[in-house]
Amino acid sequence: TWDTVTLTVEYDRGDALVTSQLASSAGRVTLDAVLTGLLATPAYDLTTQLSNVDLSILSGDSLLKSSISGSMNIRGSHFDADSINGRMTLSLAASSLGPDSVDTLFAQVSATPGHFEADSFFVQTTAVKASGRGYYDVASREVACDASLTPLDLSAVAELAGFDSLSAEGGVSISVAGTLDSLWADAIFSLVAVQANDLSVDSVGGVLKAQLGDLAFGELSVDMECRGVRYNEVLVDRISLTSAMTSDTISVDLEASSGDSLALTVTADVVPGSATAVMLHDLDFDYFHQSWILDQPLVTIGIDSAGVTVDSLVLRSQSPDSRATIALDGRYAILG
User: Fold this and answer.
1) Residue 56 belongs to what H/E stretch?
2) pTM for this one?
3) Are the C-beta atoms of 68 and 59 separated by less than 8 Å?
4) Which of 19, 165, 168, 334 is most buried per CB count within 10 Å?
5) 170 pLDDT tier (thresholds 50, 70, 90)
6) CA nearest 209: which of 188, 225, 191?
């Protein structure tokens, strides 16, 4: 609801000046537009200013309580996709939307026939700082973009994940390239001082790669390493994981070590489903110099909601003076 609405239009042989202002307790919106050559080669320069706009008053939805201030400028010529040549610049000053606040937002997008480019993008909120750039070509359907993310306040993520507290320092760099029917995305992440409830990690780093066909996941792989993993009084010096996911199978190569007390290597394939199948190819385990290895490669483990089925898993001691084995075989119920 606006208390004040003003509109002024001046027109002369294909040229127009438009000025409008809306004002109320919901804030103030102004529009200034210069339009030329509307009867021949149209050109335009439009500027919209927002001042303390509260969407909850306009919509009647209290969840949209906000205070938005900023400006948007659109300047260019032609309106049709085959001839357009324009640029949009969006800038927000300190604003808020619900519980989130935006300290700064700046974006600049240009359009030429068959080509759209985000020249620059930057946003900083209470939760994250992000920047990026990219383009889309209509004829070739080619896409390319680069972005970086730096977490600032992870309280909202902690709530979604069920943590009482969550914090980390570092960032993520993302690159996407290809065509819409075959996109490749890489994410390089490097985080330090990760803390989630009683779990802490000195550093986490790695690379995640994804192949998307027609905007649906085709392949996904991750190669990552954690250092200084602590949970209560338990410390693991290093955990490394290499995993690849296709349409129906996840391959896992896991290594963990902690000084001279622990060394673990696991190689397996996982087929998720209502009954998950795990094909264990390799398992080496060393605990305080007591070494165990998988006696018979390719052990099948089935997991469902009611229990776990193990098909002849045998670990054999590698100590020269021992013939000890640990064997699991059969069905084991999950107590809950």
Assistant:
1) helix 55-59
2) 0.81
3) no
4) 168
5) very high
6) 188
